[in-house]
# Entry
Amino acid sequence: MPKWISFPEVERARKNVATGFLAKHGLPDILGAIDCTHVDIFPPPFPTGVQYKNRKGRTTINVQLVVDVECRIININAQYPGRVHDQFIFNNSKVKLEMKRLYESRIGQYYLLGDSGYALEPWLMTPDLEAAPNSSAEKYNK
# Structure
């Protein structure tokens, strides 16, 4: 896995990813887009299996992925059952620790893009679901 899936660990690699997002989408300083997806599995035995039932009643694991501008996976976390929320997975992930380290060490000014399932953080941009028309929040969302 490390040969094919690796979060940019050195400044040159981070700048390459960020340059790609800027060139393709006009978004500066983005290291990746993050989201979780449910992957169906065979039900584990009771009582453990209950943890794998997601909100739709399917038996899954909730897999967190971070992708670069070309949708290549640069980070994956597949260790949580389907019942676990995306934010919990992120809060307990190595990628959050790395983003926090970059931010607190003032190493560049990098961000991940996430959906509304994540809390806004200094290194994680999420949409403002209550943005008024023609507001700065709506401009931010766009």
Notes: The first strand starts at residue 30 and ends at 40. The mean pLDDT is 94. The helical segments are 11-25, 86-91, 94-104, 136-141.
